[in-house]
Design goal:
Layout lengths: L14 H8 L5 E8 L4 E9 L8 E9 L3 E6 L6 E5 L4
Antiparallel strand pairs: 1-2, 2-3, 3-4, 4-5
């Protein structure tokens, strides 16, 4: 998120600092399956920052833009997008 405030603290954050650190941030892990015909990837979330997401599936359409960019769009929306870009040195 380009407009996220960069936070810094020493020791443990205050409750307000901790809240600001997670607003606009998401994280999950698990396995995934790809449906090449539908051009979707389904993330099977085994763990997540948001406990409500654990055990659920997230289905996203995928699109490759050139050789260095992957765009994932949440199915059912046109605006919720995740862009992964390959960084080379």
């Amino acid at each position: 998120m380009p407009d996220r405030v960069r936070l810094a603290w020493t020791g443990s954050p205050t409750p307000e600092q901790a809240q600001q650190a997670v607003i606009g941030y998401t994280a999950c892990f698990g396995t995934y399956t790809v449906d090449a015909t539908a051009k979707t990837v389904t993330h099977h979330r085994k763990g997540a920052l948001n406990a409500a997401d654990v055990g659920g599936d997230a289905v996203r359409r995928y699109e490759f833009l050139g050789n260095d960019r992957l765009v994932l769009t949440v199915v059912g929306t046109a605006t919720t997008r995740l862009v992964w870009e390959r960084v080379t040195k």
